[in-house]
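Reminder to self: tokens first, then the designed residues, so the page reads top to bottom the way the pipeline ran.
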């Protein structure tokens, strides 16, 4: 699975260990791309934005799991309709 293209729907099926593994993988890829940029011309500069967004999604899912809430995908539209609910 390409970490740059992770969606909330896919992340919902991950357990805590898989989320940590995915977070570490994304952080490793970001580090490698940054080192490539510093060492010379790089072709992967456009990937940074997608990887950062995927990392934010993973961290959001981890935080939601620690709080015991369910995250509903759908972006800003869903957020305005109470997209985060507590588990009972």
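Designed residues (88 positions):
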């Amino acid at each position: 699975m390409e970490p740059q293209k992770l969606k909330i729907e896919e992340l919902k099926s991950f357990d805590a260990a898989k989320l940590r593994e995915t977070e570490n993988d994304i952080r490793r890829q970001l580090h490698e791309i940054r080192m490539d940029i510093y060492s010379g011309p790089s072709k992967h500069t456009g990937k940074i934005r997608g990887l950062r967004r995927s990392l934010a999604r993973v961290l959001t899912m981890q935080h939601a799991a620690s709080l015991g809430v369910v995250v509903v995908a759908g972006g800003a539209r869903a957020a305005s309709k109470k997209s985060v609910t507590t588990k009972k």
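The two ends are 32 Å apart (CA to CA).
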